[in-house]
Every structure is written in structure tokens, then in C-alpha cells.
Amino acid sequence: MSGDDITLGELSDRDHAFYGLVWAGTTLTTRVDHALVRAHDLPLSWFEVMLWLHAQREPVAPSALGAKTLLSRSQVSRVVDALQARGLIERVPSPTDARSVRIALTSDGRRAFAEADATRRRALAEVFDGLLDDADIDALNTVWAKLKRTSSQEGRKALGK
User: Fold this and answer.
1) How far apart are CA 132 and CA 80, in angstroms?
2) 56 CB-contact burial (10 Å; exposed 0-12 / middle 13-18 / buried 19+)
3) Alpha helices in the chain (DSSP H)
């Protein structure tokens, strides 16, 4: 075996499945991130914040974004600042707490999100949609739901709830 021909060695089916999920997530994330940056100068982390905001009828607290996204609190803050600088989101006063703000997409932000979402879909068409049938998608959704439910339960235990 040459020095450039490396393997993971023998893996159990469970280890193989785990590393497969890691590989798939990293590969698809990188593909989408590159497509969004190239087409819109919009990193995937920015798109993720916009995705959550797009689905909301009312402005949301920054902490709510932090709880839902895969970003840390400081990352959310930096992303919100960057999106606001580009005119894609706005901070509005909280209706219930004068010291707090809420965040919402602007009309330009909604337009930018729709364009970026179309780019995301095109980036995934061949390597995700084109390869996976409805049964595969159902299986992935089942796995995701189980893993998320376990993660949520662990989070509540850590908080003593």
C-alpha cells in the first residue's frame, strides 16, 4: 500500500454509519456553502439564519435563533450584524421589553433568501435529490427525528427539566 492510499480499517456497521453521516453532512454542507458564496456572497451560516427568519410571521428574539440554529450565540450575533449591514434583516424593538430587540427579514432579505434557496436546491439536485428516492428521504427523516428527539431529551436532562 502506498503512503497515499489510506483507509479507516475495519469498522463496525454502526461506526461506518456514523462516519457516513458525518461525511455526507460535511460534503453536502461544503457543496451548498460554495454555491451560495459563489452566486450570492452568502455563506451557509447566513443562509441558515435567513431560513429560520423566513419561516416566521413575526420578528424573533436573537436568543431564539441561537437556540434553533447550529451556530453559537456569538456566531449568531456576528451573522445578524453582517446581514443587517447588507440590508437583509432589521432589528425592531420588542413589543414587550423596551430593552430588547427582535429580528426580521427585510423585503430585500426575503428576495435574497428566495434566490439563495433556489441556488441551494440546484446545488443539491444532482447529489441529493437525483440520488435519493422517497423511501430514502423517509428513512433519513426517521433517523433525523430519532437523533433529534434523543438530543432534545439530553438537553432537558442537562438543564434539570
Assistant:
1) 34
2) middle
3) 13-40, 44-54, 62-68, 73-85, 107-124, 134-158
Residue with cell 437583509: 88
Residue 83, helix vs strand vs coil: helix
In tens, the pLDDT along 77-122 reads 999 999 999 999 999 998 888 888 999 999 999 999 999 999 999 9
Distance, CA of 92 to CA of 72 (rounded, Å): 22
The neighbouring-strand residues paired with 93 are 101
Instruction: Report CA 61 to chain centroid distance, whole Å.
Output: 18
Residue owning grid cell 454502526: 14
Q: Which three cell numbers stand for residue 61?
A: 428574539
Query: Which residues make beta-bridge pairs with 101?
Result: 93
Instruction: Single out the residue of 92, 66, 68, 67 nearest to residue 79, CA to CA.
Output: 66
In this prediction the pTM is 0.83
Whole-angstrom Cα distance, residue 72 to residue 75? 5
